[in-house]
Amino acid sequence: MRNYLAEIVEDKKIKVEAQKKNVPLAEIKKKINHGKFMASHNMHRSNWNLIAECKLQSPAKGRLCQTHSVLELAKIYEENGASMLSVHTDEHFLGKNEDLTAVREKTSLPIMRKDFIIDEYQLYEARMLGADAVLLIARILPRQQLLEFLYTAWGLGMDALIEIHDEDDLEKALSTPAEFLGINNRNLTTFTTDIDNSLKLAKKLGHVDNRTLISESGIFTSEDAVVLQDAGFQGILVGEGLVRADDISAKTRELSLVSAVNGKSA
Fold first, then answer.
1. Name one Pfam family in it (predicted).
2. Is position 114 annotated as part of the catalytic site?
């Protein structure tokens, strides 16, 4: 069976080493203005948050959105209630660094860099590009490196969403002081999705006052979102469910207003 994650990570190692030679870390550090933790600031304003993903392609499903550019998606999301944007910079998703920079220039929403971060270089690069947050995938980072990357992100004024998929990932993430935990409903080998993964791991977590839970992937309806909110999640990260909708604006509003639908105050 094809292992998409392993393929992407191996490719990423080659690409990062090439980029480090092209633009040395010392040069990047000179261009950085430290962030102000805008992602957490924005998400603490509400008990429900939609992280809307500007996603054009999936390695497993191919092209997902033919009708809009990354910048057009970002504008739609901002106008229809998203709390934060997720912008891919990995080419397997048709992402590139320039997309993040372009979105940063046109939106006031916080932006998370969505990529496969395996080197601290990418953290500094993310901040240089204008990211307010980064995704750290527990599955591809050793425990100590995960912790170091978290502190590096914080040191740059960025928030970090630690992504987990199973109990081993969960245990690794809980060994850090990370506030934002993203439970990925996507099987990281086959890229299939099932929101039951979020529900299962949320039960393992129990009640945690100092963690903010985000469910990622495989979320398509307000009914899905309500189930997740009732299970203790404070938000969702949605890409395919938005970009493949017949009306992206309406779907963004639907998934961002779950608190109102669920009879809870935002």
1. IGPS
2. yes
- Is residue 120 annotated as a catalytic residue, yes or no? no
Residue 218 falls in which region: left (phi positive, over 0), alpha (psi -120 to 50) or beta: left
Q: Is 148 a catalytic residue?
A: no
Is residue 144 a part of any domain in this protein? yes
Question: Which residue out of 78, 125, 163, 254 is catalytically annotated?
Answer: 163
Q: What does DSSP assign to residue 193?
A: B
163 is catalytic: yes
Supply the CATH number for residue 114's domain.
3.20.20.70
User: Which amino acid is residue 15, in one-letter code?
Assistant: K
Inside any domain, residue 266: no
Q: Given 83, 217, 222, 256, which residue is catalytic? A: 217
Q: Is 184 a known active-site residue? A: yes
Query: Residue 136: is its pLDDT beyond 70?
Result: yes
Task: Assess whether 78 carries a catalytic annotation.
Answer: no
Assess if residue 45 is contained within a domain.
yes
Residue 150 forms part of a structural domain: yes
Nearest of 131, 156, 153 to residue 141 by alpha carbon: 153
- Domain span at residue 136? 4-261
Mean pLDDT (the chain, rounded): 91
Predicted local confidence at residue 264, as pLDDT: 63
pLDDT, tens only, 58-100: 656 655 567 788 999 999 999 999 999 999 999 888 889 999 9
Q: Which of 57, 55, 59, 58 is nearest to 73 (CA)?
A: 55
Please state the domain count of the chain.
1
Cα torsion for 128, 134, 136, 137, to the nearest 10°? -110
